[in-house]
Structure formats: structure tokens, C-alpha cells
Predict the 3D structure of the following.
Amino acid sequence: MRQAATIKDVGQRAGCGVATVSRVLNNTGPASAKMRERVLAAADALDFQFSEVGRSLQSSTTRTIGCVVPSIENPVYADAVQGAQAVFVNAGYQMLLTCTNYSADAEIHAVRTLIAKQVDGMLLTVGDAQNSEGLNLIRRRQLPHSLLFNAAPAGQTSWSVDDHAAAAAVADAFAKNNHVHTGFLALNFLSSDRARRRFEGFAERCMQNGMTPPALLEVDDDGLDLTAHLHGFLEDHPELTGIFASNDFLAFAVIRSARKLSIDVPRDLSIVGFDGIKVGQMVEPSLATIATTPRVLGTGAGKTVLSMIDGSAPPNVPQKEQTFSFRAGGSLAPLTAESKDDGKVAAFPPSNDQTRKTAKIQQERSK
Amino acid sequence: MRQAATIKDVGQRAGCGVATVSRVLNNTGPASAKMRERVLAAADALDFQFSEVGRSLQSSTTRTIGCVVPSIENPVYADAVQGAQAVFVNAGYQMLLTCTNYSADAEIHAVRTLIAKQVDGMLLTVGDAQNSEGLNLIRRRQLPHSLLFNAAPAGQTSWSVDDHAAAAAVADAFAKNNHVHTGFLALNFLSSDRARRRFEGFAERCMQNGMTPPALLEVDDDGLDLTAHLHGFLEDHPELTGIFASNDFLAFAVIRSARKLSIDVPRDLSIVGFDGIKVGQMVEPSLATIATTPRVLGTGAGKTVLSMIDGSAPPNVPQKEQTFSFRAGGSLAPLTAESKDDGKVAAFPPSNDQTRKTAKIQQERSK
DNA sequence: AACAAATATGGAAACGTTTCCATCGGGAGG
DNA sequence: CCTCCCGATGGAAACGTTTCCATATTTGTT
């Protein structure tokens, strides 16, 4: 790349000192009309633009904010990130984005790098807010930051869905539809406090509703075809009539796998998802799910960080109860009296394929 | 935020000059064992980290790459961006992300800011590659960059889908299934050269296949319910038996609207999408579409930029024909001989609701 | 023991800004 | 005509690095 012009070059061409150039171009301080004109002409001729690097060094501010999320392949994060980004550009900030792919190593590495880059603030979704090395680092440096989608640790603000309560609402929905035996399908269970809180909230409310404790099916790869997992899971738990998937994509995957296994959704098996992605309402059956507002959370978290930077009043985080709503859908149907009475619903078709049980399945993980 | 320690502080605490600190901490140049130890201890005690700003100023390199895309709400861009981002972090670069929301103003503004921030390279999807102010600016500065999803202008490399050929493949698919009268549904038609190229490729091949020129329905808001638009469109073009939607979300939206209008997909109306997003294969009917590999494009474009920076050999862009493939799906069905013969298929149900024609509809836009 | 060679260390310049301060010139008021 | 003041301008320091070069110290060789 051609060497860019510096303020010194402009001063030379305009026949003045750098101080004058700075004053003219920034409209700070006085300058005579002819001088002003000469400087402007020189800057124009040289295609001059201030170097933010030089500025940053002198002002010890970078007008840059770091953002760390697990993955923007998940539209929930993508929407939130885009919302925050819009808030940032509006305020004259740029956003450095890093995706961790749910890896704690990538997380701490990203935080370190962003700190070295001297970001003015940070927005992040960590794997485990209670125990995040990166988060500790940020706190120690007293860097303005906000959490996103993590449950807020004591004294911290976080823009997040109340996973616990939302999962409880799912349990209620199952209960209202007479389901008693349910399962919970989790992705990244170990590396995500979100998934864990959803499971806890769900299990707790199941108990309170007199349902049996949910069976846990944990998978760790998105791309994997769930069919084998689902088959084994239902074989081990033939009494299940409903499954709560920890996100909408998983819910779709289950529905597809069920279809392959000739299990009808929702007649034989009800499915509820989490997140409320757009397509959920476009397909047949529509997906029962927890609707969330990722964009709202993203913009809110972004504004929170900005307010910490400029000392203005931070926006109010929404009431916990307003961070989600249960959205009914065709994938959750009432259990008929008959199938409920005998306890064992005909949810499992004749098993004609010898699906191998895979090692990745874990069930009844108590904790 | 607490004032961070500088190399000078470390030198002071370790009782040595800054040059020594730099040498020790960067493992460049010699240092005695005790000196090394003292410096390390001092750095540790002060929580010292080099400031990238200072480094950037002195090396005139920022290890930062700018990325400009229309929106990461679209998973195609999200996947590509994430792929590129992964490539960048692997090479020790960070990514500054800006979403333009398909606005040319936002585009040029983003480019300007990124240039001021002295990014080492740039990755971008512009609205119109033939006529982009931002792109010109980048070229003038000879900044290493690659296009993504734009058709490459002469002499430029771009990692993109061959929209023209892909759309032609859709026309072929319709033809093979005996469709003659089709429509094209576009979003952001004016601000996206991609949509335009798809329309051109589709229309051209329709002609070659002896089909009638496709009717154009242009909408400009994603969130809007398409039902009214679709109703009016089919009323004006009752002969249509298939619609090519310029992306998968639009395709889903059409299918939903069709359902509301009691039009059965694919019996009464076939739908083909574009992009090949994951959920397309999970739902019923599955979506016939053009499958693309955004992640591959994103990583490729990322590597291209890196290669331009370090002067290494750039990766080969895929052959145009390999940038997409037609994916069959349940939303596209053969036209029965009977419905084909009379030309006018019973694609339109009794119109019982007085849908208002909205102003946003434009049809038969030639060019 | 003396000297050459190699190793260890620090000072200072340079990178591109902003901003404080000093200087210079000129117009107004005495 | 002299002073005073104000507007215009430039020099220089500071921000945090790296790196060149010079100097100081150690090691090794006769």
C-alpha cells in the first residue's frame, strides 16, 4: 500500500506547521482565511486522512469496542451483535469481533488481545460467567464492559434472558398440555452456563408440577445427524412424550430426526425449542418455543457499555420477566387422555434399524 | 479504567532501560539471566501488557482487518464472516466488523473509518461492485482487499457465487419440471447487484428454455408480511406455477403466505430459494434451493487478503461452476400434464379477502 | 596479564497525533 | 508614537513502542 500522507506532509505542502494543520482540519483554534484554504487544498490534494493510530496514542482512547461471542452462526448472537454494532457506529465507535466457538481458551485469548488493542470497552458472552478468566482480567483492569446472555454475577449488570424462568415456562406449557415425562436436549452443555440454567429451571419446575424429572440427552456436535441419538434416547426412555430442545435449531433437528424415525410431531412427540428464531413461525408445524429479543439485548448492552465510557446514565435492563415469552406452536400438542392414562405413549415405532448407540450420549446426569 | 502500566514503568521497577524490557519480553536480542528474571518479575507484578497502539505507530501495521457486509442477520453473511474471522485470528489478526444494512452511505462511511483506523486489509461485500465509492477509495490507496459475494469487476478477485449461472440452473430446474410461467421475488433489488444478477441469469435462461419471461415482484422489507403482496402478484399473473425467491428466507415467507391463502406448495405453486440455509433441509416440505458454501467463501476471501498482506501465494478461487449446486426439495414439484396443457393452472383460490394492493409492488420491470 | 572479541545494556530517534506555550505581527487606544 | 492586547502561527513535548548505535562489561585467547 502506498505510503499514506501524514499531517507533516500536509503542513509542508501548505507551507505551515503541523499545529496549524491540526487546528484547521479539526476546526479547533483560530486560523486565517487564506491559511485555512491552503491547508484544505493541500489535504485534498494529498488525499489526507488523520491516522487514528497517532490519535489513539496521544488521546489514549481508541474509539473501539471489543465484542466476544461464541458464534454468529446462531442467529440469536448474530442479531444481538448487529444491534450492538449499530449502536456503536452511531456513537462513532467501531467493533472488533471475535467468535470463540464455545472454547474457553479462545475466550481468554480474545480478551487478552482486545485488552492489548486498548479497546475502550467490551461486550461479551462468556462460557461461564461465574468462572471466566477473561472476565476477571477485565474486572481487574476496570474496563467498561457488559455481559450479554450470561446470567449476571453478583453486582454485575447483564443483558440476558432469564433462562431459569423461561425454562420453567416451558415446563408449565408441557404441564398444561398434560405431559408428564419429558426430556431435555442440550448442546454444549458443559461449556455453556446458559444450557445448564435452562436445564435446572426446567427440571425444578417439572418437579413442582408433579412431572417426572426430565431425562437429559446431551450432544456436542451441531452438524451431526441426531437420528441415532434420538433413537437411542427414546429406546431408553420410552415413556417420553415431549422434548425441550435448548435451542430452535436443535428443535428442528429433532423434528427432522423424528420424521425419519416415523415419529409424528406433535402427535407422538411434542417439541419445544428456545430462542424464537424467525423461521420457526414460517414452517409447518410451527415451532413452540421461547421467544426472545436478541436485538433488544444487543442494543441495550451496547448502550450500557457506552454509558460506562462517557459516564452518562445507563439504560435500564428489562425486568427479568420481560426478557422472554412463551410462544405456542404446532409442535406442542395436548396429550390425549388415552395416551396419558397408560403412561406409555406409542411414541416409539417398531425398531427395524440397528442404530448403534454412540458414546456421546449421556443420560440422567444428575447434578 | 486504571492507568495501565507501560514499558517505562516496567523498566523502572526492574531497574533497567526500556530497550532491555522490550528485548526480554519479546525475546529479541540478548539479556543476562538475572536481568531477564527481574524484568519478568516486574512485568508480572504490574500486570504489564504491551500496548498495540504504541506498537502500531512504530511498525505502521495494526494487525487488524476491516470487514464490511450488509447484514449478519442473513446467515449466509454470518457464516462467511465467521469463517473469515477464524482465519484472521489464526494468523494473529483481529477483525473490525461493520454492517451497512444495504445502505451505500453506511458503506462509504465504514470504509473511510476503517482506512483511518489503518487496517492492514479489508474484506467487503458492497452494494454494487461496478460503482462503489468505497471500493474506489480502497483501490486508490492500494489497500490489500478482497470482495466477497460480489461479481468480480475486471481484474479483481472476488469470492462469490456465480449468481448468473446459479439462477440459470434454477430456470433449468423449473423447465425440467415442465414449468413455463414463473415469477422472481426480489428483496433489496435496487441496492444489491447480487439480486439483479440473479434476475438476469434467471430471465435469460427462461428465454433459452422457451419459457415466458419471469414476472418480477420486488419487495423492500423483510419483516413485512408477504401475503398481501403475493395475493396481488398472483392476481395479476394467474398463470404462474412457480416462484424463484432471491433468498431462502423469502422463500419461506412465500410458502407461509401461500399457506395463508390456501395455496398448496408444491401442488399449486412451486417455490425455489437461494442460499441453501441449514433449516431448509429440516422442514417439510424441504426447500428446493441453490446450495452455496458461504463459509468456504469467507475463509477463502480471508486467506486472499492475508496473502496480499504477506506477499504469499493467494489461494485459488473456486471454478465458477463449483460455487453452487442446485438442491432438489419438496417445494418444487413437476407440473402435471393436465395443468400444463391448459396453461392456466388452478393456482389461485377463490379470492375472499379484500387484500389491498400495496404501493411497493412493481412488476414487469424490464431491464 | 593484556588485549580482542563477544555479550549486555542504555540512550535516543522515529512513528502521527494533539496541545501547551511562546513568538510574532498588527490594530486600537492613549 | 508608544503600549497593550489579541489573533495567527510554529516549536516542542508527550503518548508507548522498537531498533539502531554506542558504551560498558564479561569472556576467552595468547
